[in-house]
UniProtKB/TrEMBL annotation:
Binds 1 [2Fe-2S] cluster per subunit. Its cofactor is [2Fe-2S] cluster. Residues 5-105 form the FAD-binding FR-type domain. This is FAD-binding FR-type domain-containing protein. Pfam families: DHODB_Fe-S_bind (PF10418), FAD_binding_6 (PF00970), NAD_binding_1 (PF00175). It comes from candidate division WOR-3 bacterium. One of its GO terms (biological process) is pyrimidine nucleotide biosynthetic process. Keywords: 2Fe-2S, Iron, Iron-sulfur, Metal-binding. GO terms for molecular function: 2 iron, 2 sulfur cluster binding; flavin adenine dinucleotide binding; metal ion binding; oxidoreductase activity. [2Fe-2S] cluster binds at C243, C248, C251, C259. The keyword Iron applies.
Amino acid sequence: MTNPFLPEEMRLVRRYDLTSDVRFFQVRPVDMDRALSLRYKPGQFMMISLAGAGEAPFSISSTPSRPGMLEFCIRKVGRVTTELFKRKENSLIGVRGPYGNGFPLEKMIGKDNLIVVGGLGAAPLRSLLLYILDNRDKFGKFYFLHGAKTPEEMLFRKEFFEIKERDDLNCHLTVDVDEKGQWPFHVGLVTDLFSKVEELDPENTYATVCGPPAMYKFVIAEFLKLGIPKHQVLMTLERRMHCGIGKCGHCAIGPIYTCLDGPVFSYWDVLHMKDLI
């Protein structure tokens, strides 16, 4: 039996800065056949380990519809990430997973989708965004609303600018503050963008949100105003996870284990387990 705590050796193929403290990492198993056989769902996470520094959970930012690579968007905040930021391209790191439940794609196919992102929430929801775009004919109407504090802090800014030019989705971007006066789009809160959401069938819509804890209350209120059912309002919630497989108990909230039962939860779940957010 394979040891579930044993990380797989993977190669750091590419890395570059997205902001002053957030970096993009692209990794793949050393064996290319293994790389092409990787299976995961948008919303799942991996455990990245570095000898001498420990390990930590990170949401997968890539999409399974583009096999061969795993992509992560990581903020430098602690010992593991500080060590990871020192690693050069072509170096080896440990990765195990995927873990978690991911988004219920089988239920979301054929439905309208509304994704709302704030700040670092772009990291996990980029996976779902790209998956829907790569399988666009399998989904209905699609809205993507993204807010950041400033233009400089918007992750994947160039990529989202390009997506905004597509005619098969409604992509709206905003920043809270534009001190230089050079931002070409809306300036204000991400909830302002709900005025641009039209012609969605609420009973046929899945709404997804990820961002700073303070935004959930206000974004979910907008979802409910649209009439979207509570069980079709989804969020991906990351808490400190130590093992990824529900053995250590660090992510337990009552009977819920975030690493097993999450990190994707519905608003219905949150109503019954308020400590999730």
